Amino acid sequence: xxxxxxxxxxxxxxxxxxxxxxxxxxxxxxxxxxxxxxxxxxxxxxxxxxxxxxxxxxxxxxxxxxxxxxxxxxxxxxxxxxxxxxxxxxxxxxxxxxxxxxxxxxxxxxxxxxxxxxxxxxxxxxxxxxxxxxxxxxxxxxxxxxxxxxxxxxxxxxxxxxx
Amino acid sequence: xxxxxxxxxxxxxxxxxxxxxxxxxxxxxxxxxxxxxxxxxxxxxxxxxxxxxxxxxxxxxxxxxxxxxxxxxxxxxxxxxxxxxxxxxxxxxxxxxxxxxxxxxxxxxxxxxxxxxxxxxxxxxxxxxxxxxxxxxxxxxxxxxxxxxxxxxxxxxxxxxxxxxxxxxxxxxxxxxxxxxxxxxxxxxxxxxxxxxxxxxxxxxxxxxxxxxxxxxxxxxxxxxxxxxxxxxxxxxxxxxxxxxxxxxxxxxxxxxxxxxxxxxxxxxxxxxxxxxxxxxxxxxxxxxxxxxxxxxxxxxxxxxxxxxxxxxxxxxxxxxxxxxxxxxxxxxxxxxxxxxxxxxxxxxxxxxxxxxxxxxxxxxxxxxxxxxxxxxxxxxxxxxxxxxxxxxxxxxxxxxxxxxxxxxxxxxxx
Lengths: 163, 415
Prior knowledge:
A: mainly alpha
């Protein structure tokens, strides 16, 4: 039957034309189009990757900044603390030194007072002694003018020594 | 009769006078509409051979009718031939079939028919002449002589002519069932379908090569025509090739799948345009669908791997089933492209048959009043055919991709 019998001529021409069209389109259409599409897909992929990389980089940088800031803060705190410690130490040292100095001055003053006092006491003792000697001299002169009295005195003194 | 005369439905008044109508041709018309609706669209797509049979019957009946009409006309002489009864089935079958000349419009001297080159490989070598040499004769009455050989044309087939004419004036010997017993030269003529084929090839190149070139100018950005075509190309790549063939292998089949898809689609669309030089029923021709399906068959089996052949000759079934399974698998190799061939052929032919049948209603009823109904139905059918044109291109390409994908059986998949 004609309708369902493939005609040789049309089979021949279809094969020929289809193959030529296939060759030409493959060479001049499909390859450039699919190539361009692939190129574009790759560039989009690259761009996305680059964007992701940039994002990661940004994150890394901001994390770095954070870290640096944190470190700086810690360092600042440390410096402040150190400064405070130094200050405290200085104050304490100054206080100690002052106290020590004061103590030293006090001690010197005391020593001076003591010395003065000792000198005064010595002076006083000397004066009392000289006075006593003077008195004793006067007394002795008076006493020794009388024999009895001399004798009583010697006895008294002896008694004192024997005791 | 004008094969694409239904375009000129505006001239119904003049044509109406020319065509008569009988109850037999009306019954035949109903029969062909029924067949084209039920037989071709569904049956053919499902069960290739049965559908082909019914279509064969329809075509056979049509030819029978046409021959009868011709004989009838002979009895009354050539003058009454124009007033012969309107035969919708013969008209439709004439349109569906290929032709050596491209009828554009009108009838006889007033009309215009594009003569196409006849190229024959005869006993004496290559012979070529214009189809106008036959003077529109299609009953074997006009003999053309070339290289000492005589040719006649009967039902758009070229035969070696007899020495003398028979009682009807035909230079052929009729065999059983109106077949022609004469020998035929090999016919490589530029027929209506070949003309349409060359035109569509030209359109394809005209469409895609400039589109592809525009990428270079725009630096890879699809603009204009490329912007329209690229989504279609990507559709074939991402929805047809990739999922069915696989990510690693699809690329090398892309040229064939893309070419097949756009080739079928553009030819389907060209077939829908009723105005000369379009309207040829190219993708509804079995030779074309056969060739395309044959390409798929070759590509499928050449690209097939060991697993596929193992699956056919050493299937994973008990040994005693081999006498059944191996032949079934071997038939399967052929039945897949066979279904491709029949599906495209039947769908596109059916569309042409339905549209022509609906237009023929006007001439069958011999009434202007029926034309709004015809026009409405034809409009409706044309929209459906527009869908079918793309759908069949898609299905052919999709199934080709699927068969190619199935021919690559992964060994791990079997256990």
